[in-house]
Amino acid sequence: MDFSEAKKLSKKEVLEYCQTNFKNKEDELNAFITATYNNIDLSDSKGGILSEIPIAIKDNIAVEGIPLTCASKILDKYRSLFSATSVEKLEESGAIIVGKTNMDEFAMGSSGEYSAFGASKNPIDVSLTPGGSSSGSAVAVASGMALGALGSDTGGSVRQPASFCGLVGIRPTYGTVSRYGLVAFSSSLDQIGTLANTVDDAITLLNVIQGFDEKDSTSVHQKEVEKIPIEKTTFGIPKQIEELKISPEIVERMFDSKRVLEKRGAKFIEIDLPHLKYSIPTYQLIAPSECSANLSRFDGIRYGLQISDENLKNQYEKTRAEGFGEEVKRRILVGTYALSEGFYDDYYIQACKMRAKISGDLFNALDSCDAILTPTTPTTAFPLGSVQDPLDMYACDLLTIIQALAGVPAISVPAGKDRDGKPIGMQITGPAFSETNIAEYAKIIELELN
Protein backbone atom coordinates (compact mmCIF):
# COMPACT_ATOMS: atom_id res chain seq x y z
CA MET A 1 0.00 0.00 0.00
CA ASP A 2 1.33 3.44 -0.91
CA PHE A 3 0.33 6.84 0.44
CA SER A 4 -2.26 7.51 -2.27
CA GLU A 5 -4.02 4.22 -1.56
CA ALA A 6 -3.96 4.93 2.18
CA LYS A 7 -5.64 8.30 1.64
CA LYS A 8 -8.69 6.48 0.27
CA LEU A 9 -9.13 4.65 3.58
CA SER A 10 -9.84 5.77 7.12
CA LYS A 11 -7.11 6.21 9.68
CA LYS A 12 -8.43 3.15 11.52
CA GLU A 13 -8.40 0.98 8.39
CA VAL A 14 -4.85 1.94 7.47
CA LEU A 15 -3.59 1.36 10.99
CA GLU A 16 -5.34 -2.00 11.19
CA TYR A 17 -3.71 -3.00 7.89
CA CYS A 18 -0.23 -2.27 9.29
CA GLN A 19 -0.95 -3.72 12.71
CA THR A 20 -2.28 -6.96 11.20
CA ASN A 21 0.93 -7.31 9.18
CA PHE A 22 2.89 -6.67 12.37
CA LYS A 23 1.01 -9.38 14.28
CA ASN A 24 1.39 -11.89 11.45
CA LYS A 25 5.00 -11.22 10.47
CA GLU A 26 6.99 -9.58 13.27
CA ASP A 27 7.95 -12.76 15.12
CA GLU A 28 9.64 -14.03 11.98
CA LEU A 29 11.06 -10.78 10.60
CA ASN A 30 12.16 -8.94 13.79
CA ALA A 31 11.66 -5.49 12.30
CA PHE A 32 10.94 -3.60 15.52
CA ILE A 33 12.68 -3.08 18.83
CA THR A 34 9.73 -1.13 20.24
CA ALA A 35 6.28 -1.17 18.59
CA THR A 36 3.68 1.44 19.58
CA TYR A 37 0.57 0.41 17.62
CA ASN A 38 -1.43 -0.14 20.82
CA ASN A 39 -0.65 3.36 22.14
CA ILE A 40 -2.08 5.33 19.22
CA ASP A 41 -5.04 7.62 19.82
CA LEU A 42 -7.22 7.34 16.71
CA SER A 43 -9.29 10.34 17.78
CA ASP A 44 -6.26 12.64 17.70
CA SER A 45 -6.00 13.80 14.09
CA LYS A 46 -3.92 16.83 13.15
CA GLY A 47 -4.55 16.58 9.44
CA GLY A 48 -1.67 17.41 7.14
CA ILE A 49 0.04 15.83 4.16
CA LEU A 50 0.89 12.64 6.07
CA SER A 51 -2.42 12.28 7.86
CA GLU A 52 -3.31 8.60 8.30
CA ILE A 53 0.16 7.44 7.21
CA PRO A 54 1.93 5.00 9.61
CA ILE A 55 5.66 5.72 9.78
CA ALA A 56 8.41 3.68 11.47
CA ILE A 57 11.49 5.33 13.01
CA LYS A 58 14.97 3.85 13.14
CA ASP A 59 15.99 3.32 16.75
CA ASN A 60 18.83 5.83 16.67
CA ILE A 61 16.36 8.69 16.14
CA ALA A 62 14.75 10.08 19.29
CA VAL A 63 11.01 9.87 19.94
CA GLU A 64 9.94 11.37 23.27
CA GLY A 65 9.01 8.84 25.93
CA ILE A 66 9.95 5.81 23.82
CA PRO A 67 13.09 3.68 24.31
CA LEU A 68 16.11 4.84 22.32
CA THR A 69 18.49 1.87 22.22
CA CYS A 70 20.49 2.16 18.99
CA ALA A 71 20.15 -1.67 19.09
CA SER A 72 22.80 -1.74 21.83
CA LYS A 73 22.88 -3.23 25.30
CA ILE A 74 24.55 -0.07 26.53
CA LEU A 75 21.30 1.88 25.98
CA ASP A 76 18.87 -0.87 26.94
CA LYS A 77 15.90 0.60 28.88
CA TYR A 78 16.95 4.20 28.11
CA ARG A 79 13.98 6.40 27.15
CA SER A 80 14.36 9.59 25.18
CA LEU A 81 13.40 12.84 26.90
CA PHE A 82 12.65 14.63 23.61
CA SER A 83 11.86 14.00 19.96
CA ALA A 84 14.18 14.58 17.01
CA THR A 85 13.32 17.54 14.81
CA SER A 86 12.55 15.15 11.94
CA VAL A 87 10.07 13.24 14.14
CA GLU A 88 8.41 16.47 15.30
CA LYS A 89 7.92 17.47 11.66
CA LEU A 90 6.38 14.09 10.85
CA GLU A 91 3.95 14.41 13.74
CA GLU A 92 3.06 17.99 12.78
CA SER A 93 2.20 16.72 9.30
CA GLY A 94 -0.20 14.12 10.77
CA ALA A 95 1.97 11.00 10.52
CA ILE A 96 1.30 8.08 12.87
CA ILE A 97 4.49 6.87 14.56
CA VAL A 98 4.17 3.08 14.91
CA GLY A 99 7.48 2.27 16.60
CA LYS A 100 11.25 2.13 16.65
CA THR A 101 12.94 -0.25 14.24
CA ASN A 102 15.79 -2.70 14.56
CA MET A 103 19.21 -1.82 13.16
CA ASP A 104 22.88 -2.63 13.23
CA GLU A 105 24.19 -1.44 16.59
CA PHE A 106 24.87 2.31 16.49
CA ALA A 107 24.34 2.10 12.69
CA MET A 108 27.56 0.15 12.19
CA GLY A 109 26.90 -2.60 9.68
CA SER A 110 25.57 -3.51 6.26
CA SER A 111 23.41 -6.55 6.99
CA GLY A 112 21.28 -5.95 10.09
CA GLU A 113 23.15 -8.74 11.87
CA TYR A 114 25.00 -6.53 14.36
CA SER A 115 22.00 -5.83 16.59
CA ALA A 116 21.88 -6.70 20.28
CA PHE A 117 18.24 -7.65 19.67
CA GLY A 118 18.87 -10.17 16.89
CA ALA A 119 19.01 -9.78 13.13
CA SER A 120 16.11 -8.55 11.03
CA LYS A 121 15.15 -10.75 8.09
CA ASN A 122 14.27 -9.92 4.52
CA PRO A 123 10.51 -10.26 3.85
CA ILE A 124 11.24 -11.53 0.34
CA ASP A 125 13.16 -14.51 1.75
CA VAL A 126 13.81 -14.81 5.48
CA SER A 127 17.12 -16.57 4.83
CA LEU A 128 18.45 -13.33 3.32
CA THR A 129 19.75 -10.15 4.90
CA PRO A 130 17.55 -7.07 4.43
CA GLY A 131 20.67 -4.92 4.34
CA GLY A 132 21.79 -2.43 6.93
CA SER A 133 22.16 -0.52 9.00
CA SER A 134 18.55 0.65 8.54
CA SER A 135 17.47 -2.98 8.37
CA GLY A 136 14.32 -2.82 10.49
CA SER A 137 13.06 0.32 8.74
CA ALA A 138 13.33 -1.40 5.36
CA VAL A 139 11.71 -4.59 6.65
CA ALA A 140 8.83 -2.67 8.25
CA VAL A 141 7.96 -0.96 4.97
CA ALA A 142 8.58 -3.97 2.70
CA SER A 143 6.32 -6.16 4.88
CA GLY A 144 3.52 -3.61 5.20
CA MET A 145 4.01 -2.96 8.93
CA ALA A 146 4.48 0.72 8.02
CA LEU A 147 3.99 2.70 4.83
CA GLY A 148 7.19 4.69 5.19
CA ALA A 149 10.19 4.94 7.48
CA LEU A 150 13.09 7.10 8.55
CA GLY A 151 16.58 5.67 8.53
CA SER A 152 20.05 7.11 8.84
CA ASP A 153 22.60 6.93 6.04
CA THR A 154 26.29 7.22 6.89
CA GLY A 155 27.82 5.24 4.03
CA GLY A 156 24.73 3.75 2.37
CA SER A 157 22.58 2.61 5.29
CA VAL A 158 19.31 3.81 3.73
CA ARG A 159 20.03 3.04 0.10
CA GLN A 160 21.49 -0.46 0.53
CA PRO A 161 18.56 -1.94 2.52
CA ALA A 162 16.17 -0.19 0.13
CA SER A 163 17.90 -1.99 -2.73
CA PHE A 164 17.88 -5.38 -0.99
CA CYS A 165 14.19 -5.12 -0.05
CA GLY A 166 12.83 -3.67 -3.29
CA LEU A 167 12.13 -0.18 -1.90
CA VAL A 168 12.98 3.41 -2.68
CA GLY A 169 15.57 5.01 -0.41
CA ILE A 170 16.82 8.60 -0.45
CA ARG A 171 19.94 10.05 1.10
CA PRO A 172 19.50 13.85 0.91
CA THR A 173 22.12 16.58 0.60
CA TYR A 174 24.12 16.83 3.83
CA GLY A 175 22.54 19.40 6.11
CA THR A 176 19.10 19.56 4.48
CA VAL A 177 17.60 17.35 7.22
CA SER A 178 18.33 18.23 10.83
CA ARG A 179 20.44 15.73 12.77
CA TYR A 180 19.08 17.02 16.07
CA GLY A 181 17.87 13.92 17.89
CA LEU A 182 19.91 11.52 15.75
CA VAL A 183 22.45 9.61 17.86
CA ALA A 184 25.76 10.42 16.21
CA PHE A 185 27.91 7.74 14.60
CA SER A 186 30.04 9.81 12.22
CA SER A 187 28.96 13.44 12.43
CA SER A 188 30.40 14.62 9.11
CA LEU A 189 28.70 11.75 7.25
CA ASP A 190 25.43 10.92 9.05
CA GLN A 191 22.20 12.05 7.42
CA ILE A 192 18.59 11.08 8.05
CA GLY A 193 16.94 9.63 4.95
CA THR A 194 13.62 8.13 3.91
CA LEU A 195 12.39 4.71 2.79
CA ALA A 196 9.06 4.03 1.07
CA ASN A 197 7.35 1.84 -1.51
CA THR A 198 7.41 4.48 -4.26
CA VAL A 199 9.51 7.42 -5.35
CA ASP A 200 6.60 9.79 -4.76
CA ASP A 201 6.18 8.57 -1.18
CA ALA A 202 9.91 8.77 -0.39
CA ILE A 203 10.21 12.33 -1.70
CA THR A 204 7.01 13.33 0.12
CA LEU A 205 8.54 12.14 3.40
CA LEU A 206 11.75 13.99 2.62
CA ASN A 207 9.92 17.23 1.83
CA VAL A 208 8.23 17.04 5.23
CA ILE A 209 11.37 16.52 7.31
CA GLN A 210 13.87 18.76 5.52
CA GLY A 211 14.62 22.37 6.38
CA PHE A 212 16.97 24.52 8.43
CA ASP A 213 17.01 23.86 12.17
CA GLU A 214 18.61 26.20 14.71
CA LYS A 215 19.24 23.19 16.96
CA ASP A 216 21.64 21.67 14.39
CA SER A 217 24.65 23.77 13.48
CA THR A 218 25.25 21.69 10.33
CA SER A 219 21.73 22.20 8.94
CA VAL A 220 21.26 24.45 5.93
CA HIS A 221 18.45 26.21 4.12
CA GLN A 222 17.18 24.29 1.10
CA LYS A 223 18.32 25.97 -2.11
CA GLU A 224 16.31 26.19 -5.30
CA VAL A 225 17.77 24.14 -8.14
CA GLU A 226 16.72 24.50 -11.76
CA LYS A 227 14.40 21.73 -12.90
CA ILE A 228 16.02 19.83 -15.75
CA PRO A 229 13.57 17.79 -17.85
CA ILE A 230 14.69 14.29 -18.84
CA GLU A 231 15.06 15.21 -22.52
CA LYS A 232 17.67 17.82 -21.56
CA THR A 233 19.46 15.68 -18.99
CA THR A 234 22.94 14.26 -19.42
CA PHE A 235 23.82 11.24 -17.30
CA GLY A 236 27.29 10.01 -16.51
CA ILE A 237 28.35 6.38 -16.05
CA PRO A 238 31.74 5.88 -14.36
CA LYS A 239 34.22 4.08 -16.55
CA GLN A 240 35.42 2.29 -13.40
CA ILE A 241 32.18 0.23 -13.31
CA GLU A 242 33.80 -2.42 -15.50
CA GLU A 243 36.73 -2.74 -13.09
CA LEU A 244 34.61 -3.27 -9.98
CA LYS A 245 33.35 -6.58 -8.66
CA ILE A 246 29.67 -6.08 -9.51
CA SER A 247 27.27 -8.89 -10.36
CA PRO A 248 26.88 -9.19 -14.15
CA GLU A 249 23.08 -9.28 -13.73
CA ILE A 250 23.19 -5.96 -11.92
CA VAL A 251 25.42 -4.38 -14.57
CA GLU A 252 23.02 -5.67 -17.23
CA ARG A 253 20.12 -4.06 -15.41
CA MET A 254 22.08 -0.79 -15.24
CA PHE A 255 22.24 -0.77 -19.04
CA ASP A 256 18.52 -1.58 -19.16
CA SER A 257 18.01 1.53 -17.03
CA LYS A 258 20.22 3.48 -19.40
CA ARG A 259 18.08 2.41 -22.36
CA VAL A 260 14.76 3.43 -20.77
CA LEU A 261 16.20 6.83 -19.87
CA GLU A 262 17.57 7.26 -23.40
CA LYS A 263 14.10 6.48 -24.80
CA ARG A 264 12.84 9.50 -22.88
CA GLY A 265 15.52 11.68 -24.47
CA ALA A 266 18.37 11.52 -21.95
CA LYS A 267 21.99 11.53 -23.10
CA PHE A 268 24.86 9.55 -21.57
CA ILE A 269 28.58 10.18 -21.31
CA GLU A 270 31.45 8.32 -19.67
CA ILE A 271 32.85 9.95 -16.55
CA ASP A 272 36.02 9.30 -14.59
CA LEU A 273 36.16 8.73 -10.81
CA PRO A 274 39.86 7.84 -10.50
CA HIS A 275 39.91 7.65 -6.71
CA LEU A 276 36.72 5.59 -6.34
CA LYS A 277 38.70 2.49 -5.35
CA TYR A 278 39.98 4.32 -2.27
CA SER A 279 36.53 5.23 -0.97
CA ILE A 280 36.11 2.24 1.36
CA PRO A 281 39.49 2.56 3.17
CA THR A 282 38.96 6.33 3.38
CA TYR A 283 35.52 5.88 4.89
CA GLN A 284 36.77 3.16 7.23
CA LEU A 285 39.26 5.58 8.74
CA ILE A 286 37.11 8.71 8.93
CA ALA A 287 33.92 7.07 10.23
CA PRO A 288 35.60 5.04 13.03
CA SER A 289 37.65 8.07 14.05
CA GLU A 290 34.50 10.14 14.48
CA CYS A 291 32.64 7.29 16.18
CA SER A 292 35.43 6.78 18.71
CA ALA A 293 34.86 10.38 19.82
CA ASN A 294 31.05 10.30 19.62
CA LEU A 295 30.66 7.04 21.54
CA SER A 296 32.93 8.11 24.39
CA ARG A 297 29.84 9.61 26.05
CA PHE A 298 28.53 6.09 26.77
CA ASP A 299 30.53 5.51 29.91
CA GLY A 300 28.17 3.98 32.48
CA ILE A 301 27.77 7.27 34.35
CA ARG A 302 25.27 9.54 32.61
CA TYR A 303 22.71 7.18 31.09
CA GLY A 304 22.14 3.63 29.93
CA LEU A 305 23.88 0.52 31.21
CA GLN A 306 25.98 0.89 34.36
CA ILE A 307 28.19 -1.83 35.80
CA SER A 308 29.31 -0.42 39.14
CA ASP A 309 32.82 -0.66 40.50
CA GLU A 310 34.60 1.20 43.31
CA ASN A 311 37.29 2.12 40.83
CA LEU A 312 35.93 4.61 38.27
CA LYS A 313 38.25 3.44 35.48
CA ASN A 314 37.11 -0.14 36.01
CA GLN A 315 33.48 0.99 35.86
CA TYR A 316 34.08 2.62 32.49
CA GLU A 317 35.83 -0.46 31.14
CA LYS A 318 33.34 -3.01 32.43
CA THR A 319 30.34 -1.05 31.20
CA ARG A 320 31.76 -0.55 27.73
CA ALA A 321 33.04 -4.11 27.47
CA GLU A 322 29.61 -5.50 28.36
CA GLY A 323 27.51 -2.87 26.61
CA PHE A 324 29.13 -2.60 23.18
CA GLY A 325 28.98 -5.35 20.55
CA GLU A 326 31.98 -6.67 18.64
CA GLU A 327 31.59 -4.51 15.51
CA VAL A 328 31.22 -1.34 17.58
CA LYS A 329 34.31 -2.23 19.61
CA ARG A 330 36.22 -2.92 16.41
CA ARG A 331 35.42 0.49 14.97
CA ILE A 332 36.11 2.34 18.22
CA LEU A 333 39.54 0.69 18.43
CA VAL A 334 40.35 1.49 14.80
CA GLY A 335 39.27 5.09 15.26
CA THR A 336 41.14 5.56 18.52
CA TYR A 337 44.28 4.16 16.93
CA ALA A 338 43.94 6.43 13.90
CA LEU A 339 43.59 9.49 16.14
CA SER A 340 46.36 8.57 18.56
CA GLU A 341 49.62 10.47 18.87
CA GLY A 342 52.11 9.33 16.28
CA PHE A 343 49.47 7.94 13.92
CA TYR A 344 47.10 10.89 13.47
CA ASP A 345 49.06 12.38 10.56
CA ASP A 346 49.67 9.02 8.89
CA TYR A 347 46.09 7.78 9.03
CA TYR A 348 43.33 10.29 9.83
CA ILE A 349 44.88 13.28 8.06
CA GLN A 350 45.72 11.17 5.00
CA ALA A 351 42.14 9.90 4.93
CA CYS A 352 40.84 13.47 5.04
CA LYS A 353 43.09 14.39 2.12
CA MET A 354 41.81 11.40 0.13
CA ARG A 355 38.25 12.38 1.00
CA ALA A 356 38.89 15.74 -0.63
CA LYS A 357 40.18 14.01 -3.78
CA ILE A 358 37.23 11.60 -3.96
CA SER A 359 34.79 14.47 -3.45
CA GLY A 360 36.63 16.54 -6.06
CA ASP A 361 36.30 13.69 -8.58
CA LEU A 362 32.56 13.58 -7.97
CA PHE A 363 32.13 17.36 -8.19
CA ASN A 364 34.12 17.45 -11.44
CA ALA A 365 32.00 14.67 -12.89
CA LEU A 366 28.80 16.48 -11.94
CA ASP A 367 30.10 19.59 -13.67
CA SER A 368 30.08 17.62 -16.94
CA CYS A 369 26.72 15.88 -16.42
CA ASP A 370 23.47 16.45 -14.56
CA ALA A 371 23.30 13.11 -12.75
CA ILE A 372 25.21 9.84 -12.41
CA LEU A 373 23.74 6.38 -12.92
CA THR A 374 25.20 3.36 -11.11
CA PRO A 375 23.90 0.27 -9.37
CA THR A 376 23.17 0.80 -5.68
CA THR A 377 25.00 -2.33 -4.52
CA PRO A 378 27.51 -4.72 -6.10
CA THR A 379 25.33 -7.74 -5.21
CA THR A 380 21.74 -8.52 -4.42
CA ALA A 381 20.73 -9.59 -0.90
CA PHE A 382 23.03 -12.31 0.43
CA PRO A 383 22.23 -15.08 2.95
CA LEU A 384 22.33 -14.18 6.63
CA GLY A 385 25.59 -15.35 8.18
CA SER A 386 27.32 -15.82 4.82
CA VAL A 387 29.73 -12.87 5.16
CA GLN A 388 32.12 -13.41 8.05
CA ASP A 389 35.07 -11.23 7.06
CA PRO A 390 34.49 -7.59 8.09
CA LEU A 391 36.37 -6.39 5.02
CA ASP A 392 33.97 -8.28 2.76
CA MET A 393 31.05 -6.71 4.64
CA TYR A 394 32.52 -3.24 4.16
CA ALA A 395 32.69 -3.90 0.39
CA CYS A 396 28.87 -3.85 0.29
CA ASP A 397 29.10 -0.04 0.47
CA LEU A 398 31.35 0.24 -2.56
CA LEU A 399 28.92 2.38 -4.57
CA THR A 400 27.21 4.31 -1.77
CA ILE A 401 30.14 5.84 0.13
CA ILE A 402 31.27 8.53 -2.31
CA GLN A 403 27.99 10.45 -2.00
CA ALA A 404 28.38 10.53 1.78
CA LEU A 405 31.99 11.68 1.56
CA ALA A 406 30.97 14.50 -0.80
CA GLY A 407 27.67 15.35 0.90
CA VAL A 408 25.56 15.06 -2.26
CA PRO A 409 22.14 13.38 -2.63
CA ALA A 410 21.39 9.97 -4.10
CA ILE A 411 18.30 7.83 -4.57
CA SER A 412 18.01 4.05 -4.86
CA VAL A 413 15.08 2.81 -6.92
CA PRO A 414 13.98 -0.76 -7.69
CA ALA A 415 14.93 -1.83 -11.22
CA GLY A 416 13.54 -5.34 -11.45
CA LYS A 417 14.90 -8.57 -10.03
CA ASP A 418 17.67 -11.07 -10.67
CA ARG A 419 17.12 -14.65 -11.84
CA ASP A 420 16.50 -15.74 -8.24
CA GLY A 421 13.78 -13.14 -7.72
CA LYS A 422 15.91 -10.85 -5.54
CA PRO A 423 15.44 -7.08 -6.04
CA ILE A 424 18.03 -5.02 -7.89
CA GLY A 425 18.44 -1.36 -7.02
CA MET A 426 19.66 1.41 -9.32
CA GLN A 427 21.19 4.57 -7.90
CA ILE A 428 21.00 8.08 -9.28
CA THR A 429 23.37 10.65 -7.80
CA GLY A 430 23.03 14.37 -8.33
CA PRO A 431 24.66 17.64 -7.27
CA ALA A 432 23.72 19.27 -3.98
CA PHE A 433 20.01 20.08 -3.53
CA SER A 434 18.97 18.16 -6.68
CA GLU A 435 16.68 15.72 -4.84
CA THR A 436 13.62 16.70 -6.88
CA ASN A 437 15.41 16.18 -10.18
CA ILE A 438 16.91 12.79 -9.34
CA ALA A 439 13.56 11.64 -7.98
CA GLU A 440 11.91 12.49 -11.32
CA TYR A 441 14.54 10.47 -13.18
CA ALA A 442 14.12 7.57 -10.74
CA LYS A 443 10.37 7.52 -11.42
CA ILE A 444 11.09 6.60 -15.04
CA ILE A 445 13.09 3.54 -13.97
CA GLU A 446 10.41 2.72 -11.39
CA LEU A 447 7.74 2.78 -14.09
CA GLU A 448 9.60 0.99 -16.86
CA LEU A 449 11.53 -1.78 -15.06
CA ASN A 450 9.10 -3.02 -12.39
Structure description:
The chain is α/β, with parallel strands linked by helices. 36% of the residues lie in helices and 14% in strands. It has 14 helices and 11 strands. The protein has an 11-stranded mixed sheet, with helices on both faces. Strand 10 and strand 11 (423-429) form a beta hairpin. It is globular and about 70 Å long.
First-to-last CA distance: 16 Å
Indicate the structural class.
Answer: alpha/beta
Task: Give the mean pLDDT.
Answer: 95
Beta-strand segment tally? 11
* Radius of gyration (Å): 21 Å
So what's the overall shape? globular
Question: What letter string, H or E per element, gives the SSE order?
Answer: HHEEHEHEHEEHEHEHHHHEHHEEH
**Strand portion:** 5-15%
Strand order of the largest sheet: 1-3-2-4-6-5-10-11-9-7-8
Count of alpha/pi helices: 14
Helix share bin: 25-40%
